[in-house]
Amino acid sequence: MPTYTALTTLTGQTSAEALADALDDLDPAPMGVGTFEVEDGSGTWEVGGYFEEAPDVIGLALLAEVHGARPFAISEVPETDWVAHVKRELTPVVAGRFFVYGSHDADKVPEKAEPLLIEAAMAFGTGHHGTTQGCLRALDRLAEAGAPHRSVVDIGCGTAVLAMGAARVWPGTMLASDIDPVAVDVARVNVAANDLEGRVRCIVATGLDHPDLAAAAPFDLVFANILKGPLIDLAPGMTAAMAPGGHAILSGILNEQAEEVIEVYQRCGNSLVHREVIGDWTTLTLQKIV
């Protein structure tokens, strides 16, 4: 059974949210409505609806006119076996010593690699995205430098691939946290699949706001592969939670946003150790000044 999308853009958060509310009143009603800001500094927002039946074209045109939006682009989404598609598209990724793979590629794990299994059905955070790959490469550089990082936390962990990578190279129990309970459930499944139960502990938390995180601080290493805005908001608290000489590996940063993030973290008492660009994304390694 086909589904349909209807997407448009307009200026301003208030207008976007009003249009999203109005979409819910269409007949047939969408099964889901989403809004997000286009991160190009223009103030543009995208509004989209997802429909199980062909949407009311005239109704959408009227809503776009009333709310000052561009005409809706309506598309039929073909039926797809997404797990099979992911298995075809997500080939193994090498990031330093780490080999990130799905179970369908278990026979391809090199002998000397540190394997990280992420199932295809749980593909967010597989290492294919430049941000995750950059974080794994940064982790590999720290491990190569030799100093153990015994207290590690992965903020916004997704699949927990970064916390699992740390557990592959250092002793101790790594913490992995996410604001989304579903993501934490996925992380726990991946931890079990990698035989890392007891080595990686997954918790639901908003940023660093959790008693278990407070009790585990100060951290030798903090991962935060999220977005520029939350990274900037977290800068003072994250720096305070780091041990003197501890590291932070930050990503989810568009290349043009990197200087702003660096400046904020430097003002909080960190120095830039390494900066890597992969495609449109920058990964930063910083160190807390002793």
TrEMBL record:
Assigned protein family: Belongs to the methyltransferase superfamily. PrmA family.
Gene behind this protein: prmA
GO biological process, one term: methylation
UniProt-listed Pfam families: PrmA
Residues the record lists as binding S-adenosyl-L-methionine: T132, G156, D178, N225
Enzyme Commission number, as recorded: 2.1.1.-
Residue intervals passing through the bilayer: none
Organism: Roseovarius aquimarinus
Reactions the enzyme catalyzes: L-lysyl-[protein] + 3 S-adenosyl-L-methionine = N(6),N(6),N(6)-trimethyl-L-lysyl-[protein] + 3 S-adenosyl-L-homocysteine + 3 H(+)
Locations listed in the record: Cytoplasm
UniProt cross-references to InterPro entries, sorted A to Z: Ribosomal_L11_MeTrfase_PrmA, Ribosomal_PrmA_MeTrfase, SAM-dependent_MTases_sf
PANTHER family: ELECTRON TRANSFER FLAVOPROTEIN BETA SUBUNIT LYSINE METHYLTRANSFERASE
GO cellular component entries: ribosome
Gene3D superfamilies to which the protein is assigned, alphabetical: Vaccinia Virus protein VP39
Superkingdom of source: Bacteria
Record keywords: Cytoplasm, Methyltransferase, Ribonucleoprotein, Ribosomal protein, S-adenosyl-L-methionine, Transferase
The keyword Methyltransferase is assigned to this record: yes
Protein name: Ribosomal protein L11 methyltransferase
Lineage, opening ranks: Bacteria, Pseudomonadati, Pseudomonadota, Alphaproteobacteria, Rhodobacterales
UniProt-recorded Gene Ontology molecular function terms: methyltransferase activity
Function of the protein: Methylates ribosomal protein L11.
Disulfide bond in keyword set: no
